[in-house]
Write a structure and sequence with these properties.
Radius of gyration: 32 Å
Shape: elongated
Structural class: mainly alpha
Helix content: 40-55%
Mean pLDDT: 75
Number of helices: 2
Strand content: under 5%
Low-confidence stretches: none
Distance between the termini: 66 Å
């Protein structure tokens, strides 16, 4: 941020000095300012239109997350049952030494 301000100040003073030396025309510019591309303006400087507003903001998020969690839980439960039925992963009973 600080470097940007310094660069702009140096560029402006260079452009002003070059414009005065050549009569003020654009041909006398030795350094061209970089085009600052903003999210809210076009290259010409005109403002861009307002972005579209999503009508189902929070409701859409809820309607996406809850089914995703339910489907993921169902898949993981079915995979755990499959692994246990085929003796690929069976929890050991040795860890339950509460006596």
């Amino acid at each position: 941020m600080v470097l940007t301000r310094v660069f702009r100040a140096v560029s402006r003073s260079t452009l002003l000095n070059a414009g005065v030396a050549s009569g003020g025309g654009p041909q006398g510019q030795l350094v061209r300012l970089p085009l600052l591309r903003r999210k809210y303006t076009y290259r010409s400087g005109a403002l861009k239109p307002m972005p579209e507003i999503t009508p189902f903001g929070l409701f859409g998020v809820i309607c996406t997350v809850i089914p995703g969690l339910l489907i993921g839980a169902t898949i993981s439960k079915n995979m755990a049952n499959f692994l246990e039925e085929n003796d690929l992963f069976v929890p050991s009973d040795d860890d339950d030494d509460d006596d």
